[in-house]
User: What shape does this take?
Amino acid sequence: MTYMAFVGPIVRVRVCSLVALGLAIAWLPGCAISEESIQKSKGYYQEGVASLEYDQQKSYVSFQKALKLDPGNKEARYGLGHILALQGKFPQAEEELRAATALDENYSEAYTYLGQVLQKQGRWRDAIASFHQALANPVYTTPDLARFHLGRSLAHEGDYQGAMEAFEDALVVSPPNVPPALLNLELGRAYHKLGFERRSKDTLIKVTTLDKGGEYAAAAKELLTRLKP
Assistant: This one.
């Protein structure tokens, strides 16, 4: 899946029970997690990250072990959702990512990933809400990811004005986390839908410069042929 930011700082909330179905956090008296368990959980999480690219099954098991030791390890929950999404198991991925956001309501990376998983399920309005939730965090370090996917969702729903604004906002983030050629391609499409032919043409020409001979340049050239002279 494209543009799914994965590794982030380990921040955990100490809990004793995560009710996945209801996405609720339940506190039970006398259920404090030892510092040793927390550190071991971190270790299993790092083990899962290290094996992610070459052995997803091993990585999945490591994340499960991390959560068994510390159910509040939100990154391990995110990791499980990531693997499930890569496998096309989107309802299960959604469950894990919602569990991660239940652990931390400011977990913007998880909200952005959740939005993409919802897109894959055709739930565009829910995806839009998730991207907005990600952007509600003023210290989110990669907001252009959420803005890019928000723009695509808004465009799918016919809100090209909102899509244009989302793409334009994404373009000012530096350094970029979305390929500039792809972002400009989507912005050029939004301009075209809004009837801004000159802006669309200039933006699409920029794509052909940024992505010489690439798939984004090819898509931009095809759209340029349909613009008014």
